[in-house]
Structure formats: C-alpha cells, structure tokens
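tokens incoming
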C-alpha cells in the first residue's frame, strides 16, 4: 500500500451507486477523518437522484477529479462498469474482476477491491481457530467472488460453492481454482446431499437472503449443527434469520458487519494514506443500530 506514506490533512470522497441514501459508509469515513483531525467531506452520490438523471458514471468520475476528490467508493450497479474507466487496478481488483474503491491521485485513477480483505480480516478476527478444511459458500454473485477468494486466503483447503444459478457457481469455482490453486473448488447443486456425504466445517451466506426486504435463509435450518461455523455477509438486519438459527443450533457465528466495517477501514487508508482505527469505525457503524437518545428540547 504505497499510499500509506503520504499523509494528508483533508478527506474528500464519496459513494457512487443507486439506492444508497441509507448507506453507513459516509458516517464511518467522516467520523474517522474527524477523529484524526482531518477536514472530512464524504458525499452520497446517488445516481438515482433526479439531478443526476443525465449524468453517466464517466461524467461523475471526471467531476470528482475536477473537484479534487481523493477517491470514490463504488457500489451496485457500477462495480464492473467502472473498471473500464480506470488507469490501473490493484491485484485484488484484477483477481476479483470488480472495483469498490477508486483512488484519484496525480491525475490517475486506480481501482481497488477492499471487500476481499474486509471479509478475510473479519473472518480471521471473528472466527479464529475454526476448522477450515472444507467450507461451503452459498451465493456466487458480486460479493461471493470476493468472499470465495478471501476464504482461500484464510486457509480453506476445499471450497464448495452453491448458487441457485448453477452456471454462476461453476464459473466461480473455476475462477477461484485458477487464482488460488492451493484451494480445491467444486460447484454443488444439492446442499442436503453435500451435508450427507461431505459435510463442510462451516459456511458463508453471500446471497441476499435474510435481508430485511428478503426474509428467509438460503439453506434449511435442519442442516445446522453445533460443529458448524456460520458466517453471514448480510448486515441489515445484523441478526439475520440464518444467524439466529445458527446460534440456536449452537454454531459459532460471524455477522456481516465485520466485513462492512473492514472494507471501509481499508478504503479510508487508501484515500488518506493514514491507518484507520477499526474499533472506532465499528463503533460508528453501530450508532445506526443504537442511535443516541434525542436530548429533551432538541
Ligand atoms: P448479487 O445479486 O451479485 O449475488 C447474489 C447471488 O446469490 C446470485 O448469484 C444469486 O443467484 C444467488 N442467490 C440468491 N438467492 C439464493 C438462494 N436462495 N440460494 C442460492 N443462491 C442464491 O449480490 P451481491 O452483490 O453478491 O450481494 C449479496 C448480499 O451480500 C447483499 O444482499 C448484501 O446484503 C451483502 N453484502 C454485504 C457486504 C458486507 O460488507 N457485509 C458487501 C457486499 C454485499
């Protein structure tokens, strides 16, 4: 991370995506910048806003550069499209084939993917010591690609991948096998059969199942038992149906908030060249779930 040796006195950044009004990312960056004494501005640049109806992603990047932005976070649906507008990519972004952080510096645009490190770091700190001979990943979409590579980097030796779209599972299994040859991968169609014949040590949900707007879980609760560790990357709500069922079954669990905070930690470091404090950024993230009481008279 070459940027770490160039501290700055300001942070000017933003998040580009659609339907992002409720994002927790701006508050995390602003609070961390403020705590480090930086003048911090982090804008929500929602492409669904009427004033941006005529603007393209390319227009937004040009405007951010012209305005002196340090960088941008990029989310749905632009993580792949943005790659065509950049000068260079980090190794992680190239490996995953998606960018969630763009650093704008010295007239150059460099794309990074901090989701991979974010999940890997969350896993290492939240589930240390769990067995990782065989893991199951459910969901082979955009986030699933980062999680699959992170699991390989965390020492998972065999990775089974399931998706309701079997082609996606097959493609991701081939991608991880090519990028991380030390991890053996397989696409699996029948979860019950997998649990009967080749039980995984743990599993990660990287489908949207369990989100407030998509209740439910991507595997039957009957497959859970205390020997299994269970991670969810959905973080709204924090306690998904899967995590609730896994806790009830006696499993060790990892909520999605860790990945969400740690991807922002790494993005802050890339934008500012300063180390971020993960505990402080996590505390800011938590203020959304436990808002401070409104003082009388305000
Ligand atoms: P996506 O739409 O790109 O991919 C979701 C994948 O899940 C698709 O391939 C889909 O076919 C599959 N799927 C859906 N329902 C399924 C089911 N019941 N069984 C098996 N497969 C199923 O979405 P994404 O960008 O990968 O995001 C997935 C979720 O991850 C989001 O809902 C978001 O909440 C969460 N997420 C969390 C973080 C974080 O930092 N914690 C980061 C990114 C995404």
């Amino acid at each position: 991370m070459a940027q770490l040796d160039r501290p700055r006195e300001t942070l000017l950044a933003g998040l580009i995506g659609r339907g992002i009004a409720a994002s927790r990312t701006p508050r995390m960056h602003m609070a961390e910048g403020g705590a480090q004494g930086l003048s911090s501005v982090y804008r929500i640049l929602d492409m669904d806003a009427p004033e941006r109806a005529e603007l393209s992603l390319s227009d937004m990047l040009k405007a951010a550069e012209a305005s002196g932005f340090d960088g941008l976070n990029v989310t749905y649906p632009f993580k792949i499209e943005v790659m065509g507008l950049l000068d260079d990519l980090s190794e992680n972004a190239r490996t995953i084939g998606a960018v969630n952080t763009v650093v704008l510096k010295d007239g150059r645009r460099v794309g990074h993917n901090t989701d991979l490190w974010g999940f890997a770091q969350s896993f290492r700190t939240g589930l240390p010591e769990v067995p990782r001979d065989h893991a199951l990943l459910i969901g082979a979409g955009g986030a699933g690609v980062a999680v699959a590579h992170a699991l390989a980097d965390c020492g998972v030796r065999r990775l089974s991948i399931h998706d309701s779209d079997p082609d996606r599972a097959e493609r991701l299994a081939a991608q991880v096998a090519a990028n991380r040859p030390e991890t053996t991968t397989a696409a699996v169609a029948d979860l019950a059969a997998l649990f009967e014949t080749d039980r995984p040590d743990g599993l990660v949900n990287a489908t949207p199942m369990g989100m407030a707007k998509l209740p439910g879980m991507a595997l039957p609760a009957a497959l859970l038992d205390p020997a299994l560790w269970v991670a969810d990357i959905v973080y709204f709500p924090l306690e998904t149906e899967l995590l609730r069922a896994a806790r009830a079954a006696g499993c060790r669990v990892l909520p999605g908030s860790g990945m969400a905070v740690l991807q922002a930690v790494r993005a802050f470091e890339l934008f500012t060249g300063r180390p971020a404090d993960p505990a402080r950024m996590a505390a800011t993230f938590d203020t959304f779930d436990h808002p401070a009481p409104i003082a009388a008279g305000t």
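note: The longest helix spans residues 257-272.
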